[in-house]
Predict the structure.
Amino acid sequence: MKSHRYARRVLELKMPSEDSAEIISFGSGEAYPEGLPDMGDLAQKAASHYRRETMQYSAWLGLDDMREWIVEYVAHEGVKVDTDQVLVVNGAKQAIDLACRVFLEPGDVVAVTAPTYKSAVRIFRSHEANYLEVPLDEHGMDVPALAALLADRERRGQPMPKLVYDIPEFHNPTGITMSAQRRRELVALAERHQFMVMEDDPYRRIRFEGEAVPPIQAFDTGGHVIGIGTFAKLVAPGLRLGWVTAAPDVIEKLAVVKADGGSCPLTQRLIVEYVKAGRLSPHIQEVTGIYRGQRDVMLGAIRRYLPETTCRVPHGGYYIWLQLPERISGDDLAQAAIRRGVRVLPASDFYVTSGPANFVRLAFSYSSPSAITEGIRRLGDAFREIA
Ligand SMILES: Cc1ncc(COP(=O)(O)O)c(C=O)c1O
């Protein structure tokens, strides 16, 4: 085949594979199909009654009603912003991409936890970023370790990170939540070294137990945090709608590089009508109950079929980060599992360089309880095949 003269930044990038319907998927974090909301009545209203708004280009920053709702929503979480600090985007991944466009030159450094969200890494790669990997413990990103790494870089005259990316609440893939103390320390470090914290927070409301910690942005007084929210886990991933909260000047730059004439007003109106009708809270309550049940089924199946493994019980989110005995590689297990019709993601997908290989990530969000039990049973067989 003819080879095209691609830009260097895309040479290493590949499409992730998609699973056929027969595969039991614990792979990507998709919503449980039975839990998706029926928005047919609101879609009719949005496309008909509101057509003068929804069939036009939207305002660049998003619909006023949408942004006003987002201001109120984040205020409940402790983040105080005005509407000029809100940009509506086509999902959290677009927000990450825009932040990279605004802040990174090729070769600039992004600090990430090891491991971290693999789609974010794909985006950083497309911006030709370099990385600083920061360890993670049970309190979240190890901010004292980051401080030591930064002090060392400063001493050696090495480039300092411009962006620090994290998922502080129900971290993907590990499920860990960052402590309030660490959040405070991270903001102080951002102030000191003048980097931006990209706070990607899709799972905050999918909480099964325990008390929420305020977002990192709630601790920030210097405008060093880019807060990223999404309706993907709150309502439905297919809507492709999310938001950014940041200082007004950052919002302006993000809006300018977005350059698509504003996110789809039809989808925004659909969501505005959904939240105004009071349907969001009951929906979140319903899906949280579903995911808690699916998590528990998966944990039970793991105890039964994979007693050689260990995991931290996630208090929210979509994932279990399963630790295998040291000699077993997640890559080998993922391959053996797919031969038995089960998709799991190996640890290697979540490191920008390399890390311990003996983990796999299991999403309990998508599959029914019976499919979860069957999938874990097959994963147990795959494990014994390679062990
Ligand atoms: C950490 C993280 N960020 C963002 C997203 C979702 O992004 P989007 O709103 O683009 O669907 C996910 C979904 O899996 C995620 O795990």
Observations:
- The mean pLDDT is 96.
- The first strand starts at residue 24 and ends at 25.
